Amino acid sequence: MKPIAEIFSQGEEVVGGNVVDSNAAWLSERLVALGFTVKRHTVVGDDLDDLKSLLREIAERADCCICTGGLGPTVDDLTAEAVAEAFARPLQLDDIALKQIQRYFSRRNRDMAESNRKQAYLPQGSLRIDNHWGTAPGFSLRQQRCLFFFVPGVPSEMKRLFETSVSASLLRNFSVRPDTLVTLRCIGIGESDLQQKLSHWRLPDHVRLGFRAGADEVQVKLLFPGDHHVQHIDDCVAQAADCLGDYVFVIDRGGQSRRGLVDVIAELMMQKNDTLSVLETASQGLIAAKCLGQPWLSATRYRRCLASLAAELDVSINQEDMQQTAVACARQLQQREGTELALVQLHSGASEQFGDQERSIILYNVLLTPDALHYSQHSAGGPPERKQNQAALSALDLLRRYLQNKCP
Predict the structure, then answer these.
(1) How far, CA to CA in Å, does 281 sit from each of 176, 253, 338, 355, 388?
(2) Where is the MoaB/Mog domain positioned along the sequence (predicted)?
């Protein structure tokens, strides 16, 4: 059975929403990668009784706990005091910690305030965690069931202490085997539709299925136990990918590569040694922005007014067949820019319709390649910024499908 971990964040600014608790998310990801089960994230303000009560609860129910914040020199930094009172471990001066704090200030040619001495007092029986990047040393101790680690709330310091000290201590004290996370990253389909596509697939025992929806993609996550055979993982992922079909643009294993849509496109464009020219309307320059700095992007143009676009490219606008207009624009664009590929994205409706979040627009995408024409058509709704992003993604997804040989 996996050891149970908790994350405990301290600070009134976190409880009040003035500071986003990014530490907890970062720590959770690291703990899960090591093989722990993270059961709770808890945030407590600067209240001594609340801190003591929570510490006692965690000591009884968790195998380990990472506590962040409350180690500073001011009166509202109460973590060490709370630990001392909760577990009957009086604070004691750690001479080495004090020298490290003094050295921190002397190296910066600054006088150490008397209040900083407070940071050198650690609970009796705790082990100091040296902090070479700030004034607050961390410390660890075991109380009842739980092995506690107390580290600063400053993210840069917290991360350094975890990476240099805490993670190694966790691996010494616990027998853990990390799970394997495989993420199938999808585009052009909603979360509920993805689940429907997987509804007839029998999920293997002990494998956890999850979904995560974002602005640019929807992720299907498969979490395999650490003792799962590699071949079984491969077979399971292949079955899931087969159910999801062409909506999957990349499969990330281990949760480490995290390649986005443009990363996948860039890799394939470099392999094929192709160049691309782009003409966009509804996306309003967002395609170019998403592909900023890519060497294969030869030329980009953004035109809000179709009339000026038609005049520039010497094409006729066919309001009854916008796809035909997009094809004519693509041919002219490819000829003028001399690129292997030309991507054109147009939309129906006037600017008033684009700005009205109650009204949808139709997106028309055309990709002209040396051998063929490829099309896609989508509806985009919501606020203008959502329509803009949908327009850019739909056009880029057409390019991705061509590069992955998934165009019909």
Answers:
(1) 52, 36, 21, 13, 9
(2) 6-173
